Amino acid sequence: MRRVVVIGGGVAGIQAALDVANHGIPVTIIEREPSIGGHMAQLDKTFPTNDCSMCILSPKMVDVERHPLVTIRTLAEVRDIEGDVGAFRVTVLQHPRYVDSSLCNGCGDCVDICPVEVYNRFDAGIGVRKAIYKSHPQVVPNVVVRDAEHCIECGLCYDVCGREAVLREDSEKTEVIEAASIIIATGYQLFDAEKKVMFGYNRYPDVITSLEFERMINASGPTGGEVRRLSDGKIPQSVVFVQCVGSRDIQMKRTYCSSVCCMYALKNAMLILEHYPDCEVSILYNDIRAYGKGYEEYLNRAEAGGVHLVRGFPGEVIEGKGDLILPLENTETGEFVNLHADLVVLSVGFEPVPDTQVIAERLGIPMDQNGFLNTSDLKLDPVGTIRPGIYCAGTVTAPRDIPDSVMTAGAAAMRATRDVLLAGE
To answer: What residue stretches are annotated with the 4Fe-4S ferredoxin-type domain (predicted)?
Structure first.
């Protein structure tokens, strides 16, 4: 039977693959990272229930890996797509892992013995990783990857691996996959907070992004779930969240709302108070957009729990004597205040990944004014494109939260399933 190719292995891609495969149709997931899971794997909790993120995602990752009709290609990229609905030819470039996936059992002995430590992108730079590594303990597939760029060829990983799974040499490979339908679920990236120079990101160590905070407060993160100031390692007594960093910003050409920032800031604010009840937590906002089911109640719960909502933005972040100062006008009261904070968290918005433009050009799919892929009709066909047989899921078309991303994945999966059935054997 013809198969479906899913480009992207985040929660939307995983859900789409599972839905298609459960209809008896083969699926191939193409994921550029060493593990599937996407951004959701980096999170601690999800709103509005504050459920453990990996408790929801990890079973899906395991299910999709074990499904007999699903093939996962990690460290892989789509280089070309030819053909039409029912008869696509997808050219996939497989990057070298420098580890034999059929032999590696993910024991981690090579990771423990490796002497090299480098920047860990999965931990948003808060932590470090080795030159041979797993992004996090629950990676799928459960196989390490050797970073040939930073490896010093000390040979210790070769010697310690009793299965001889670590390879000295590896090379790129190209594979052509025939598919009846394609689902694009390449996700998003976060706005670069350094562009908002007035907030002092990367200039003041205690100004961090929301993702860095997520990795801090995550029990499996680099700090073991403790929120610490990067300047002195102390627990902050006051934390301020600054909203709309890279969203609703004409100067940055990011005029759209990123949809989720208000809610994840409320979530993280409540998590701080759970960990440190005496901490003073404030959120500086323009408008609170609590639009989903249970979101307004979540907002009320946060305020009742002690989260201070201040309507106003700081003009800048100033370094004080051991703290940070945020001068602003409370637009509800007209009062000008200098807010003091031990830690400032910038709620950065979503933007398209650079590959979105490449995919759009190769497939002839238009992009909207913000750089996301355009669907054929936002109301009548929110997952379809002008190319029959090619569908979109998750945040590739617009910023979305996890429930909405999963919903679009299900819709795209059903459309792709229909294409396969119409294409026949």
So the answer is: 95-125, 141-171
